[in-house]
Amino acid sequence: MEVTQLQTLRNDHLGRLLLQAHRAFTARAIALLKQHGYNSLTMAHIALLPHLDESGTRVTTLADRSGMTKQGMGQLVKELESQGFLERRPDPLDGRALLVTFTDSGLEMLRHAVAITQQIEREYQAILGEDRILAFKGMLRAVS
Question: What is the dotted CATH code of the domain comprising 3-143?
Answer without folding.
Answer: 1.10.10.10
